[in-house]
Amino acid sequence: MNGVHDLGGRHGFGAIDYDTSEEVFHDRWEAVVFAITNRALASGVAKNVDHFRHSVERIDPVSYLSDTYYGRWLGGVETLLVEAGVLRSEDITQRAVERGADREARVAARPSGHTWQDDTPRSQSAARRGVVTAKFSVGDMVTTRNLNPSGHTRLPSYARGACGCVVAEHGAWVLPDANAHGRGEQPETLYTIAFEGSELWGDTTEPCVSVRLDLFESYLESRYLEAK
Amino acid sequence: MTDFQPAIRAEALESLLIEKGLLDPAAVDRVIEQFNDRTGPMNGARVVARAWTDADFKERLLHEGSLAVEEYAFEGGQIDKLVVVANTGLVHNLVVCTLCSCYPWALLGLPPKWYKDPSYRARSVREPRAVLQEFGVALAASTDVRVWDSSAEIRYMVLPQQPPEWVGLEQADLAHRITRDSMIGVGLLSA
Q: What whole-number distance in Å separates Cα of residue B33 and Cα of residue A28?
């Protein structure tokens, strides 16, 4: 989805806010969100990591930028808990108000009628070696497709329609675009593609810079397809 | 804290889930203990220190990262495939995840706040040299800067360059000197 999460290349965020003394968790509530998310993944409320990542992408976009990392996770996991019927939004708000929250506070979670389509078995690893043959080889030039799905994808918008070189082939992996939505695993070959800075950023690129992305085969087409 | 609204809502969610028997009240303390005591950049530092002092291990680490670190059985989040990339005099590697905040937890622990903030995620792919300058890393104009945007389940870690003054030191001593930032690629090591 063309969401606010797709941050690569955006202008306007300013300097890096580097804090040398930072702790793993800045406050207990961050560990609370972490523990709840672990539980959601273990219990099947979050069907898999792709389903969870997409729940974070679907939260309120203002909250995405204002609530920090664990606030984003909170929005995602609350979305999934409500969609799974485990909790009701109004009960969570009521409890938060009892604990001092503002009743009108912006809530990150965006539960919808987003229904899970099947019960793909959960698995530990996303690697699926040997189930598909690779269309491209190391050294091939490829172009990324101009994909704009409303659902989950792992092709960042800054790398759409860009030409790059295959620098590694990693065998077959679960396709997040399908797995996040319960459409099965649909394994595809995963490649590392190297893009020159000028291909992504034009004249404004810094010198001697390249970006490498791990991209699924269906994101790619041969650089020379149209010429043939 | 706090009147930070997400903080209050998180603890409201926790209390409801505990009441329903869906969350172990001790789960939060276990998470804190895990990532404070057992899973952190000290794991990655052990691996780097060994790679500097054991050429066979270094070769295995750079070619089959997951297999090379298997024997350590690091906890704290499975890595489906680990790729370790070496900084040299000619190449400087930098790791980011622009779409979320993917990071090699088992080796480096949970990522620092700046790694997850919009600024680093937005800028490191577009102007890595400017970002590195902010971290105090100045590179030659001819250095090949490679940014790894972790867009699938492969996790990346940088094998930093060993300062020449550190050659001959014991692995345990080296491991204490190796910084988290050098393994993300935003820091250089110096004696």
A: 12
Asked if the Cβ–Cβ distance from A6 to B113 is below 8 Å, we say: no
Q: Does A139 touch chain B (CB under 8 A)?
A: no
- Whether residues A39 and B32 touch (CB distance < 8 A) is answered with no
The residue of A32, A63, A72, A188 whose CB has the most chain B CBs within 10 angstroms, and thus the best one to mutate to test that interface, is A32
Does the predicted interface ipTM exceed a cut of 0.90?
yes
Of A26, A124, A212, the CB nearest to B148: A212
Across the interface, which of A17, A154, A212 has its CB nearest the CB of B146? A212
Res. B159: pLDDT tops 50: yes
Per DSSP, the three-state class of B111 is coil
**pLDDT confidence bin for A228, thresholds 50/70/90:** very low
Using CA atoms, how far apart are residues A117 and A107, in angstroms rounded to an integer? 27
**Digit-coded pLDDT (tens) for B76-133:** 888 999 999 999 999 999 999 999 999 999 999 999 999 999 999 999 999 999 999 9
**CB-nearest partner of B7 from A27, A56, A170:** A27
Count of alpha carbons within 13 angstroms of residue A184, beta-carbon side: 3
From B15, B100, B151, B190, the catalytic residue: B100
Rounded to whole angstroms, the Cα distance separating B168 from B159 reads: 18
| B131: number of Cβ within 10 Å | 23
Q: Does A224 touch chain B (CB under 8 A)?
A: no
Assess B89–A contact: CB distance below 8 Å, yes or no: no
Q: Under an 8 A CB cutoff, do A35 and B6 touch? A: no
Residue type, A120: T
pTM: 0.96
**Residue length of chain B:** 191
Report the C-alpha gap between A1 and A124 in whole angstroms. Answer: 26
The Cα B10–Cα A34 span in angstroms is: 10
pLDDT in tens, A13-59: 999 999 877 789 999 999 999 999 999 999 999 999 999 999 999 99
